[in-house]
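re: that chain from earlier
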Amino acid sequence: MIALAVLPNGDVVAGGLFMDAGGNPNANRVARWDGTAWQALGTSTNGSVRALGVANGKIYAGGTFTATGDVSKPLSRFGIYTFDVAPTALGLSPQSVTENTAGGTAIGTFSTTDADAGDTFTYSLVSGTGSTDNGAFSISGGQLLITASPDYEAQASYAIRVRSTDQGGLFTEQTFTVSVLDVAEDLVVSTAQTVPAGLYHNITITGTGDATLGGNITVTGTLLVRNAFHDGCFTVSGSGAFTLAARAVLYICSPQGISASGATGSIQVMGARTFSPHAVYVYEGTVAQVTGSGLPGQVYVLNQFNPVSLTLSQPVALRSALSMARPGNLVLNGNSFTLLSNADTTAFVANFNTGVVAGAATVQRYLTPGTAPTLAYRHLSAPVTNTTLNDLTAPGFAPVVSAAYNTSPTPTAVRPYPNVFGFNEARLPASTNFASGYFSLTALAAPLVSGRGYSVALAPTTLDFVGTLGSGSEPLSLTRTGATDKSGWHLLGNPYPQPLDWDNVTVPAGMSPTIWVWKSTGGTNGAYRTRQSSGGGTGTGTLLNGILPIGQGFLAQVTGAGPVSFSFENAHRAAPFADGPLYRAAVALAPAPAAPMRVLGLTLVGASAEQTDATFVQLVPGATLTATDRLDAVAPARNVGVPTLRTLGPNGEELGISAMPETALTTGTTVELLLDVPAAGAYVLHVGEQNGLTEVALLDRATTTRYDLTTQPTVTFSATGAGEVRGRFALVFGQRVTGTAAARAPSAFTLAPNPARGSVRLSGGAGQPITLCDATGRTVRTWAARAASPTERSQELSLTGLAPGVYMVRTGLTTQRLVVE
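^ sequence. v structure.
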């Protein structure tokens, strides 16, 4: 070996006198070493090669030879050899593809670097390191084609391995990463789904959609929320806009809440940010949050679901509801917070946990005109604490007080006449005049006691109460002074900024479970609506569903010796949105309680739907006929300017609800009815509810007619004048009229009180002589029967001079037992 040269690819060319190289006999005098084996270079020479040079892709040889086997131009002692060098580099441009590019599209062009001039190349996808995604591509000529349209959200890049081979079979390989360029595309969410992180153009969450971010997103168009959107503790940014539509729900995790502008909070788009005042905003972060400047000044619903705290960033007025579902407080931070009220809605606060509104809030209370469009007495209560009588000041109304009213023998003559009254049952220990329990507050700075009610004379307006929102336990000590049925009454009131459900209340022993709500019809006129709680969410009465709206006062009675400890509790609050106007326009019979109680609801209807009252008789295991039961609801007073319908208790008590034992159905028990009508005219007695009571009849003694209320639930009668109708009508249980709905009735009658002392009133038995017999059957006294009257069917019987004992009173064919004390 005499001469050596190195080719550009590193191969070695050797020249000399050798006859073979590495055992290759064809490689003599000149040969090529590729790092593995010796190869012949052309057909060698016929003499020695003494010099080698490499330039311009050729090998130049010089020596003593006179001929070469493979030269471009035979020359003596000089030869030129060509050689093939493998490619040295492989490129792809571009190395990216735009998302959503159609399948079959050429996305890039290959290029090869090779020292051999004029070489051509073939490209192919080969296996090996970096060939993971070869199947997603194909090659045509020198171009790379993508097989299917790429989706950035599904796969952001591809790995491929490509070989470039020259015409001599030499090759090079290269791996490439083909990136997918994300495109801002539209997304429509119509079900519950997670929105992956990424770039979007428009995102529309439809009226049935519920979207939750799975990462930060960029929006170039508009993110429109028509139903529910959870930020998932991620952010929305980009050049686009954000719109929260009316009644949509935005769930906010960011500690900064939502901002009107800037790069804070969960919504950070650079375009318009629209947060509807009619939307629902739910703050559900796990660390302390602020509402943020993006929360509108008025919102439809605000939900505080943060277990730590939520702080207002600016004043807020609430149109519908605030839900407090976690232990964290809503901190007002000196900002005003107003619960709005109008003819359509009254905002409320629902406390489901221990969190409260921290700070002074304002609770509006729109007074429904209903049947009292002018000045009227309304029973109200404060839904806040730490407020005074002066807080009742409203457009067209200023409270007036008078200490002189409380001591004057003629209080109605006091001037100025007060227009706000409390109620003190101790003012009437022996009086039967219920109204004497009302008293005037003596100072405008007097507190409005939480849980107490007030009678206020004012025209329809919108009140606002400012103070700490009522929440939690509100204990009261309720007394009873005196022993009449007018004793022990208290004017209480809903203490919460949320409707109260009396059916949720279990009253303590010594207190009647029945409440009475005054519904004004203008001036001093009005009617009582009643509700008796059976506990566990059921009840009986004319107060629909037992709901006491925000700011509603009501009457309750202590029936025991007292005092009784009674406490309002959060558990008494009504289910959300179970609200109603402060003064309902008509009587609605409430659903009957669950078995075993059976109820009859009887309604008296006058000239209009507003001229309506109702009474109830219920069969209760353990009730008695001889004494007023806990479930007998004694009325505080009669209606004014509105018909009154009551049942009479064993001692003449006027009852809105009467409890009787089950045996009443088998003994033919008679329950006397008391009516008081405001004017002469036609009236209707109608069975509005007959839950399980089929053996009951209405007795009209004026016409001596008995009506089967099962087959004839409506009876019309006429009153010749205004006033009390006593002794004419009675309910008879346990007897059915057969054949026809109405039949001639026997001369049934009742005695009250029984036991009696001094006198007893007999109702019924008109036109019949009355006989009193002692226990041996001996007649001891007789009375002439009072003539029949369309309005008065009772008479007083003197018992003066009779020894105490058991007697029998007989009129016609009917006999009643009478105990004389």
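Residues 583-596, 737-741 have pLDDT under 50 and may be disordered.
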